Records
---
Amino acid sequence: MEKYILQTKDLVRTYKADTPSPVYALKDIDVQLRRGEFVALMGRSGSGKSTFLHQIALLDRPTSGYIEIDGIDVSKLSETERAEFRLKMLGYVFQDYALIPELNLYENVALPMRALGKRKIQYDKDVHEIIKRVGLQDREKNLPSELSGGEQQRVSIARAIINKPDILFADEPTANLDSEAAAVVLDIMRELVDKYGQTIIMVTHEDDDKKYVDRVVWLKDGKLQSSQ
Ligand SMILES: Nc1ncnc2c1ncn2[C@@H]1O[C@H](COP(=O)(O)OP(=O)(O)OP(=O)(O)O)[C@@H](O)[C@H]1O
Ligand SMILES: [Mg+2]
């Protein structure tokens, strides 16, 4: 088994702009994530944090560079294989939650289970349990539009971890939570790492969140600053 569950080499992502030169969102990023570590990704707004997470979670394709997950060169995967890989191995908490508006809270959380072809009898208990853990047991039948931003964020977290992903990518998962709800979420993430050996990379702006993680990686203007 490889020591690193995820690594990148010379990762570049540029966006085409109306100007003669492209916008460099990411410049030559080399990162290694060990199995079972909890890493915080920090940096100013626009430094490339979400762009980086999108690349390594296979939601986007880099302009150039190499990404390896669980020993696999992911550039070699077909679209179908990438989708299956994401479903089985990766969980993602989106900065804007990305819940399905027509589905209620319970159905949103159960979605990854259904996508894996599981039946309700197989996942029902787990879904109720995880919803309870994020404190939303009384809101299971509500649509996302009937929930506050912080509540939607917690639904997004529950959905991302229901499949027990090997790697969890969380883009500012506590940004809209009060400090009590944030502590609940951070405790859950810490437990996923300590008890189940999951690997987590979390974008955050909160200095307080640092005490939950094993190390901090900084991005500045699309470049990696430090990674101890
Ligand atoms: N689709 C796009 N087209 C063009 N430029 C983009 C696109 N997405 C992001 N960018 C640019 O890439 C840079 C990095 O953006 P990114 O969203 O990764 O930043 P971030 O660190 O996540 O910021 P925040 O803390 O505000 O979420 C920014 O300059 C942004 O304007
Ligand atoms: Mg962002």
---
Amino acid sequence: MALHILDLLENALEAGARHIQVTVNEDAESDEISIEVQDDGRGMGAEALQKALDPFYTTRTTRRVGLGLSLLQATAAQCGGNVAVESRPGQGTRVAATMKLSHPDLPPLGDMGATIAAALSREEPVELVYHHRRGPKEFHFSSAWLQLHLGEVPLNCGPVLDWAQRYINKGVAELYGGEGK
Ligand SMILES: Nc1ncnc2c1ncn2[C@@H]1O[C@H](COP(=O)(O)OP(=O)(O)O)[C@@H](O)[C@H]1O
Ligand SMILES: [Mg+2]
């Protein structure tokens, strides 16, 4: 799942986003997991939005097929869910995937710390919020909060990114009562 989120974060960064919000919500009662990535990048017009979920469409020039969104869509469909993309040119994009929490094919969450750290490692600074709810428990990470404590130290340097990765993975593990996932 973290790799899908990494794909979405890369799309957002490529679209020039300055603020990105990642929200994961696991709700056993409704048997649903939702994953949402919202950005303030350049967005897509109606036509581009329609094409965005087509694996043979990409605006990148380094590869002929765009796979991020269509792979996510395949995973979601496989796990009894779907993907919704909302976008406004010049304003931003919101990608929301939902899946059945108890589905046997549901991918494991994976390394969320590494995913968030990778997004923060870019040269251009980005403000990133990661919010993860699991039933009554929640974990919140904000890069702006971290930057505030760092003062002059840049966020996108090795030791800080390593720390952020561990901090996030520890926080997420606590959502699972330490049993991990
Ligand atoms: N968050 C986003 N903001 C703006 N455009 C996006 C965003 N996500 C996807 N797109 C557009 O949809 C296309 C397909 O995305 P994707 O399936 O991830 O493939 P790829 O990133 O390899 O092109 C991208 O090339 C881009 O034009
Ligand atoms: Mg992509």
